[in-house]
Amino acid sequence: MLSFLSKQTVQEGAQKFRFLAAFILGGFVLSSVKIWTTRRMRYRSLNGKTRTLLVMLFSLIPTDIEDHQLMYERSVLARWTILGYELSILEARGQMDTEDGRDYLEALNVLRADEWEMMTEGDRMTTVWMWINRKAKRLQMSGYIDNHDLASISQCVTYMRDNGMNLVATLYEDNPLPYVYICAMLVNINLLIQTIADGLQWGIWWNDSNGAIYIQLRMYIAIFMQVAYTIIFARLFDLCSALHNPFGPRDFLDLPHNAVGSQLRKLAKQMAMGELPSTMNKQISKYHDSGKSMVVGDEEDNLQTSLRRMNKRLAGLKKDTSTSLFNTKSTLKELKAASGITSSKSKIRLRKVTNKILLGRALGKKSEPKTFVGLDPISESKSKTISILDTMKTPTRSNTTEIKDTAGKIKKSKSLV
């Protein structure tokens, strides 16, 4: 009787704690996932703001290969932009002021001379944003950019600072410590009571079966359920620490910062060099608008592009035609072997058919698939219908002529420009 009361009491307590722990733990898990998602979205926003700052810097600051000082200033601004970006990531990882963080920046080749010592400890990325604004102000005073350009660059720097300072934001985003402690306590108490209740139940089964419970399937199912229940509840609580900071080195869970940062460094370096397409500075003598496309500008460039496309298409058509002729010969040989032609009359007929098809293919004439009857000399009543032209798909002579005429017109127009 005592064991029954103990078992019943423990099971009732386990049921109450199970409900309470599930209720509290559900909200805890949702909050942890929301924080994780918010921080990843903020990282994406930081990447976008970094690209925006690079675009603004190197589209507003002029490029002059002969002006070595100007090109040096452009390269410094590109490096400082990536330096501030990487410092924001190090701050989210808790390594901004450590020697490991400094070694990381030096390995990326974004840290020079005494820059590390000149940064304010605890707020290094803000120091870098100030440097960028100061450099832009000097360029404005030197006449390279105007006041509006300076204001645009300063606004982009401000956006970068706002995003970089709030990547983790533990001050107002983390779950309160009392809430975390209560969740941990409820999970542990629930697992303890549930384990005791299952142990009492297994003891009763063992006593009622005189020890034969271990040869019954229900005992092993109960053990599996107990282990799975414990693991699931424990891992749900551990989800808080796993999702707390997505800026770590875990490949399967954290952000792929190595790949993203490498792409940004490549972009900054290429933009700082100031390489632009030839159409950026091309001077044209005639304005052309065909009215049929979005291509408006130099007619000569358009004609050259069209001519290259036509030549490429003609080469492809010649290749397809030769391939089709080879396939036609192979098909006719197979038909001859399959029909078992032995009489000279049938051979002459097949030879005429072959010559006619090859001549038509060479001239590019369109013709409907024809039906050839009576190729079997043994039994004329057993006619065979063979569609040969179905297997031959080549451009017609009219299409080829049209393409050549178009190419000739393009060459003629090019000579007139």
TrEMBL record:
<feature type="transmembrane region" description="Helical">
    <location>
        <begin position="217"/>
        <end position="237"/>
    </location>
</feature>
<feature type="transmembrane region" description="Helical">
    <location>
        <begin position="179"/>
        <end position="197"/>
    </location>
</feature>
<keyword id="KW-0812">Transmembrane</keyword>
<keyword id="KW-1133">Transmembrane helix</keyword>
<protein>
    <recommendedName>
        <fullName>Bestrophin homolog</fullName>
    </recommendedName>
</protein>
<keyword id="KW-0472">Membrane</keyword>
<feature type="transmembrane region" description="Helical">
    <location>
        <begin position="20"/>
        <end position="37"/>
    </location>
</feature>
